[in-house]
Amino acid sequence: MGNKSLICPSCNEKNNPAFIKCWKCTAPLVKADDSSQRKESNLISIPRVESKAPSKNTVEWEIPGKILVGLMRIGTGYRAFVKVLAAKKNGSGQSWENHSACEADAGASIFKVMPFLERHGYTLDADTVRCGEIIGDPGGDGGVNEKEEGPVKEYFPNGQVKTEGVCRDGKLEGLVSEYYENRQIKTEEIYKNGELDGPFKSYYESGHSKTVSFFKNGKRDGLTKHYHENGQLEFEAVFRNGERVEETVKKYDENGKLISGRG
User: 61-66 contacts: CB < 8 A, separation 24 or more?
Assistant: First the structure.
């Protein structure tokens, strides 16, 4: 991303260039004598919506069918995640891309995913990123007093575990598992210092394998395979530093027949 961070004149915190107010202290970021630092943004602002998650520790912004952004409270830390429908590089259609970041502070988590949002032409309004207001933090101060250490869990309303993992110094570390409400495993991710780093696996609610991939430093890297729910391979490709290597892409029908790519 070519844009540089804006420094808040009040609290000296870094902010996304698209923000009008500081995410941490809400002070105005653009003064009469520094308006040249930012040009009018052509980015599409994603509205905040009522969260579909049954728990109160998740908030969401969404343009249905195009992009979903969420901010989840995990213990005293936060996980920001993005799911965006983007054009494939070969021009053959669109596919969903995912990105996430974990930090001890809600605003810092959001700040980490902003470059990914901007790359796809989107942004968030700073007024909706106050973690004390949107997460329901009793302190309401937009931050946390301590960094989470040890196991963290999120629950469905019926008491079943939805997500579980471990935090070290306020950041996710090691295996993070997400479940369907029927207790079936949904995803298994490996984190290192708050970023995806290692094997990634997802499953259909039936228990069949859905996606097998690998991440390095928060970016998809290596061979990725996606399966039809009947177990047949649907798609495979090699990624390098988050970018798909187009000549490695192969697609298969539900009977396992190659329909595009080199056999």
Answer: 61/124, 61/128, 63/122
Lowest mean pLDDT across 33-47, 178-192, 208-222: 33-47
Question: Would residue 157 count as lying in a domain?
Answer: no
Which amino acid is it at 53?
Answer: A
- Classify 134 as helix, strand or coil: helix
Question: Which amino acid, 208?
Answer: H
Average pLDDT along the chain: 77
pLDDT digits (tens, 9 = 90+) for 108-142: 778 788 888 888 889 886 556 554 444 444 333 33
What global pTM score does this model have? 0.51
Structural domains in the chain (count): 1
Domain with 184 in it: what CATH number?
A: 2.20.110
**Domain range spanning residue 237?**
173-263
Is 62 among the domain residues? no
Amino acid 151: pLDDT? 77
What token pair was written down for 109?
């988590």
Residue 243 lies in a domain: yes
In a domain, 80, yes or no: no
Q: What angle do CA 12, 112, 67 make, to 5 degrees?
A: 130
Residue matched to tokens 């009018």: 40
- Read off the pLDDT of each residue in 195-202 and give the average, rounded to a whole number: 93
Helix, strand and coil content of the chain, in percent to the nearest 5, comes to 10, 45, 45
Alpha helix segments (H runs only) across 72-222: 106-119, 131-134
